[in-house]
Amino acid sequence: MPLRLADFLPYQISYPAGTIARVLGELMEARFGLNSAQWRVMGLLGSFAPLSTRDMVTMGSTEKSVISRATTDLVARGLVVRSLDPADKRLLILEFSADGRALYEAACAVALQFEAALLAAITEAERTSLLAALPRLRAAALAFAENDVPASAED
Fold first, then answer.
1. To 5 degrees, how large is the angle CA 109–CA 98–CA 33?
2. Nearest 5°: phi and psi at 95?
3. Facing residues of 81 across strands?
4. pLDDT band at 155, cuts 50/70/90?
5. Tens digits of per-residue pLDDT, 33-81?
6. Selecting from 3.10.100.10, 2.30.30.230, 1.10.10.10, 3.90.1150.10, what CATH number does the domain 5-146 have?
């Protein structure tokens, strides 16, 4: 049976997720001058600061080079400050500057308005189902990746 992209679950998930991420990224870029990676760093710091770059890579599920470039740009703009981890001098710890905190709070207001618009498009039951299904789908993908899956059905 051939794969029909329109019916393929990974596509059905990634297409709207990509659209949502693109629209949010365009909002953050236009209003605050934050590209998607910078917004991701700001979001992680807003939720979990102080953080090391290593923690950001893990928590943000993003390449180290992307996080590094974004944090370097945010430091240059005076939005984020870096310091050495007192326990491990190899790690850089990141936190907001006062200007960074203010920008983050303004960006969050826009992000929350965007989220509200998305949630208004679905029922509460749909939201509950979606939020319950997403972690299970992630776990299933990771479990699949851990198994020794043959390259083709004929193997």
1. 55
2. -145, 165
3. 95
4. very low
5. 999 999 999 999 999 988 888 888 888 777 888 888 999 999 999 999 9
6. 1.10.10.10
